[in-house]
Amino acid sequence: MQRMEPRGIVRYTLILGKILLLGLKLQFLWLIYTFRGLIILGIFPAIASCVKLLERRFNATDGLLAQLTDDKLSWSTLNREFKEFYQQSFWEINAIGYLGGLISTTLIVDLAVNRAFIKSAALQYGLIVLLLMVMIYWLYVFTIYGRYQLSFWQYFRQSLIISIAKFTNTLAILVGTILVTVLLVTFPILTLTALVPLYLTPMIWFSLHSCLAVEAVISNDSHA
Known about the structure:
The protein is an all-alpha fold. It contains 8 helices and no strands. Keywords: Membrane, Transmembrane, Transmembrane helix.
């Protein structure tokens, strides 16, 4: 007897369920490995590993939907993949993350000091521009780190170059982040089950397409 494939709303419900299950697994993996690094040393490697897993699937050649709903994405498979990149990236991504955090904190403190004591309009605008550049850097650095093998300082430079080269995608990340926030406010249960994957999805999707666009330009120039 031939097995009938689900159709219509049943099929879409099953697809949605598989995607939510993947998000739930990634959320728990992020939590487990963040606490494994005692939070302070675990949060950046856990984020980087989550980004890496999603980036691989977004960039797959056999279709995004097939990747996100693959029945082979068991807990053990995802855990093994997550753990491998977590251990591989542990010290370097912590250094990249905390250096970026130090720069962000320094700029925020400088803004507060200037506003309270120095009160220089030119310095204020300059600091705001630098802070915006650092915020944009945060939108790209994890995807850049997961996609390329670069020297330590090249990750900073490459993040800024790609974010500027395809600035419409940078704006799309911000819009996507706002939409995710609205979704989480509307359905609070998602905060517990898929907070991290949901926020990472627009960031990875659009930053990855910025990378692909820059790679295409470089490839065309090299063949010209």
